[in-house]
Each structure stands twice: as C-alpha cells, then as structure tokens.
Amino acid sequence: MLSEARAVSLREFWLRGRGQANLMIGLAVTLLLIAVAVLSLVWTPYPINAIDIPAKLQPPSAAHWLGTDQFGRDVLSRIMAGARNSIAVSLVAVGIGAGLGVPLGALAAARRGWVEEVVMRFNDFTFAFPALLSAVMITSLFGPGAINAIIAIGIFNIPVFARLTRGAALSLWQRDFVLAARVAGRGRTRITLDHILPNIASLLIVQMTIQFALAILAEAGLSYLGLGTQPPDPSWGKMLNEAQTLMFLAPQLAIFPGLAIMATVLGLNLLGDGLRDLLDPRLRRLR
Amino acid sequence: MTLLSLQDLSVVLDTPEGPATVLDRVSFDLAAGESLGIVGESGCGKSMTALAVMGLLPDAARCTGRIDFEGRDLLALDEQALCALRGRCIAMVFQEPMTALNPVKSIGYQVAEGLRWHLGLGRGEAAARAVKLLDRVGLPQPRFSPDLYPHQLSGGQRQRVVIAMALACDPALLIADEPTTALDVTSQAEILALIAEVTAASGMALMLITHDLAVVWQNTAAMLVMYAGAVAERGTTAEVFARMAHPYTRGLLAASPGALGDILPAGRRLATIPGQVPDPQDRPTGCVFAARCARAAADCLPRPPAERVLAPGHAVACLHPHEEETVL
Ligand SMILES: Nc1ncnc2c1ncn2[C@@H]1O[C@H](COP(=O)(O)OP(=O)(O)OP(=O)(O)O)[C@@H](O)[C@H]1O
Ligand SMILES: [Mg+2]
C-alpha cells in the first residue's frame, strides 16, 4: 500500500522534473559520467597504462580521439578510468561525511546540552582549517595516496553534514508533530529516526550532490598536488599536474581532463539545484 | 478514585530576563472517568500545566510540588518510564491540527504507530485497528483511506486523526489543549462533541483546556479558572457558573465570544477585561489580578489571597468575591 503511494509520487516527480532544464541536464551529465566509469571497467579504447613512447604527445586523431600523453598513453582511456576514480573517491568521502556527520548532527539536536556542545566544538575545530589545508595535513601525516585522500575529504565533509542536520533537526524538534510524537511516548532516538530524518532527507540529498562535486574537485586538487591518487593510476587531477609542464607542447593534455572536471562539477551542481526545486516541500504540497 | 492529583505544583522557567514563575502552587484532583475544564486567558499557564503532567516541560523549567498519577509521582520518574506512560496511559490532543501530524507519514501509519509501540501489535493488526479508530472518530472507509497524507485532509479531519492517535491505546486520561481553537465554528462543535462522546464511552478522564467558558459549560463536570499561573476559582461547573465568585471569572464570562456572552445583561457586558496579565518575571506580591480588578481594595495588595471554600465543591482565591448569584 505504502510502496504504491511511493510509486505514484515517484512518477509525479518524473512528470514535474521533466520540465526542469537544469535538473535534466544535470541528470544527463551525471548518468553519462556513471556510464563512462562503468564502461571503463570492461572496455577502454587502449589499455590505460599501455606505454607507447613512439606515439607520445600526439594531438587528437582518429586513432587517439583525445591524443596521447608524454608516455604515449591514450588520453581518452585515462579520462574514462579517471571518472571511475573520481566517483569512487567522492562516493566514499561523501559517505564518510554523511555517515558520521548526519548522526552527529541528529544526536546534537536530540540531546542538546553538553552532547551538543561537544559535537559543535568538534565541528568548529574541523571547520577552522581550510578544507584543502586539512587534507594536505592528513595526507602528509599518513602519507599520500588515494585512501588517505578519501579519508581527508571525508573528514572535511563531516562538519558540513553535522551542521546542516543539526540546524534542520533543531527546527523540526520545535514542531508540533514532534511534540505529538513525544506525547505519544516515543523516545528521542525513535523520533529522530521516524520523524526528523525523513523530513530532512531531501535537504541531505541535495547537499550530497553538492558535496559530491566538491569532493571531485578536492580529489583533483589533492592529486594535482601529488597527495592523492598515485601514478600510474589515472586521476583527472594527476593528469592536470602532469600536463602542466607540457602546457605549450600539448595543451590537449590539460584541456580534456579540465573539461571533464568542469562538466562533472557543473552537472552535479545542476542536479543538486534541480533536486532542491523538485523536493521543496512547499511545491510538494501543491500536488 | 483519584487518577491525577497535582499538589502545589510550581514551575519556574529560567529566561534571559530572569526566572519566570509560570505556575504558582497549582493543586487539583481529577478522578478516573471524570472531566475537568481549565480555562483562562492566553499565557495564564494552561499549556504549562498540561506539559508538566506529560513531563514535557522545556529544558529550562524547574518544577516543585507533586504530580501523582495512578499513585505514582510523575516528577520522580525517569524519561524511559515517562515514555511508557505517554500515549499509553495519558494522551494529549493539541491546538494545531495542521502541524500536529507528520507531513511525510500516512495517517494510517501515524495512528498505528502507538499501537505497535505501546501494545506491541504486529504491522497488520495495528493497521486494522487504525482503520477502526479512524472510523470511530468519523473518518470512514473508503473515503478516508489510511494511505492518505495529512495535507490531503482539512483541519477538522486532521484533528480527528489526532484524536484517533490519542485514543489508540485506550489511555486513562486524555488532555485536550484548546483542541478546537484553530477550527471553524461548525467543526469546533463537532470535535468537542466527539471528544466528549469518546471519553464518556470508554470511561476516560478528560482534562479540557480552553480560553472559552462556553466550551467548559458544555463539556466538563468540574472546572478550574486560572489566572497568571495560579488557580483563581474552582468547583463543579454548575456551582461555579451559578455564583461566578471571582471577578476574573466574571470578566471571562463577559469576554466569552460564544453563546454565554449574550446571556449576561447588557449593562454588565464588557468586550474585554481591561489591562494585561502581569509578566511571569515580574509578578506583584499581592493578588495578581488586583491591578485589573474593579473590586480590589487595600487588603488585596500585601499578600496573595488564600483559597476560600464558598460551598462544598466550590472555592475561590479572592478576598472580595461576588456574593450575588449570576443570572445563569
Ligand atoms: N519556552 C518558554 N520560555 C519562557 N517562557 C515561556 C515559555 N513557554 C511559555 N512561557 C510563558 O509561560 C507562560 C504560560 O504559558 P502557557 O503556554 O502555559 O499559556 P497558555 O495558558 O497555554 O496560553 P494560550 O491560551 O495562549 O495557549 C506564558 O506567560 C509564557 O510567556
Ligand atoms: Mg496554550
């Protein structure tokens, strides 16, 4: 019965969302990115790490659509594999951020008092360092590498989700239906699970798409600095880094990974904006 | 048998402007299956009384006195014990049906929730009981499917859902805090009739909070008039209405928007009681109503008047109560 109601509203979401240009563009770009990443697992035009020195630094051609790098590796293949890397890193990093931040924020709002103080001070502490700086700190402490980059980006995401959750949850705790749930004898944990989180789910989804874009940027930044993904694994940021010295010799080496990052971040932001409009409860009331 | 007993319940709230006494030595008894109306102006502490009984006062509140429910001191219970009591033994209906329901859960789910939680019913059984409860409060199938969401119902219909939620576990006490204020006149009468009917039918005690004397007159056997956090007058509804000894009670009668206002002789009818309720941070030492009272004298000012019994089952906290009978 309930799933039937869900199905109806999903269809309604689709019908309403179809007319929204930014949502549709964002969705298309995101799906394309995912498709490319999945495809790269089974097929790329060339093996991603196949070195072919005679064919190095070629401009785009029929054989190599996006050209080759200084080792003669196919850029298109590496960008495809880089998408996989970007998705994996940002998925796990946002997962860490939301997975720890949301419970912390919800706990702070539910318990108030010293629990809230501790959580918020922890947030302030983490937030006080600029994201990239704290990532550099963590990776220099534990050594560079994809895993440490993920952890660094994840930690920087925790306070984002903790603050968002706490703020939204605090205002929900003031609402009558939460008081009604308390009057009905529900404990704070159950109220958080049944009443608070479902009501901020859409907010969290939107924030996740945005943090996802930021995480892709952060991964690229860390890899660019040599602190993220290590060679020879492909990463968009790493490719930019390597292209730097060859800027005038082979500009395509910088342009294509740059475009990939830009399109992905733009697409995710459009998706986030579109979802925000779509999930806005004030609009939902009108259905 | 006494179900609920408040003894000298005082509640002090810590506010940025200093401590505010929102309840001042409130005492009353409510027997099982009986009904009590609590009436007073906005801000006189009616909701605070209800929340104190539910154990849901704001964090900044300090409570003294006793609240006994079925022989247990509620103020001594921990949160877990209170959770087991709320919704199971004491249920509450709020003023705002528009916001008292969770917008993202179906009404069937919300009614069934308490059944599953308190009574341990399975999903199917709870859902079946929920449908019966919806029917009981005047939301019959198939028009009012349990799969509807709150925004698909009118205010009156939502309040019926809230009442169904409150009735679900067959509590011993139902607290209704201005259950009809947000509704239009027709729905008001229907909802009040529904509350009176269901509580009477299942032997539930009713604590009905309102600012409208007419609502008390029509629905409860006993009543309590509150002013500025304290009890001004109390008794059986018939006794209190026959005498209306406290000047504040008469002021409320005159200000009553409903049928009662018209009964009063034109010359004694007032639109409102002049003046304002004193701030809870800044209560006068004497009678709190003195500043607004036409009958106030010098002896009202030094200390608050003690409660005096006028007749069996009728008491007033006033040094100069009205002596003459009302026209009612
Ligand atoms: N969270 C709070 N902090 C400080 N003071 C409060 C708080 N909540 C209520 N009060 C004060 O407590 C007093 C009693 O409030 P209460 O809600 O019990 O009034 P009420 O009789 O229910 O009024 P109404 O008819 O408007 O619902 C009021 O003076 C109010 O200003
Ligand atoms: Mg109130």
Automatic annotation (TrEMBL), chain A:
It holds the Pfam family BPD_transp_1. One of its GO terms (biological process) is transmembrane transport. PROSITE patterns: ABC_TM1 (PS50928). It is found in: Cell membrane. InterPro entries: BP-dependent_transpt_permease, MetI-like, MetI-like_sf. Keywords: Cell membrane, Membrane, Transmembrane, Transmembrane helix, Transport. GO terms for cellular component: plasma membrane. It is a multi-pass membrane protein. It comes from the Bacteria. Residues 83-272 form the ABC transmembrane type-1 domain. CDD domains: TM_PBP2. The chain crosses the membrane at residues 21-43, 87-110, 122-141, 196-226, 246-272. Belongs to the binding-protein-dependent transport system permease family. This is ABC transporter permease. It comes from Pelagibius litoralis.
From TrEMBL, chain B:
Its main location: membrane. GO terms for molecular function: ATP binding; ATP hydrolysis activity. Transmembrane segments: none annotated. InterPro entries: AAA+_ATPase, ABC_Ni/Peptide_Import, ABC_transporter-like_ATP-bd, ABC_transporter-like_CS, Oligopep_ABC_C, P-loop_NTPase. Keywords: ATP-binding, Cell membrane, Membrane, Nucleotide-binding, Transport. GO terms for cellular component: plasma membrane. CDD domains: ABC_NikE_OppD_transporters (cd03257). It is a peripheral membrane protein. Residues 4-253 form the ABC transporter domain. It is found in: Cell inner membrane. The keyword Disulfide bond does not apply. GO terms for biological process: peptide transport; transmembrane transport. Belongs to the ABC transporter superfamily. NCBIfam families: oligo_HPY. This is ABC transporter ATP-binding protein.
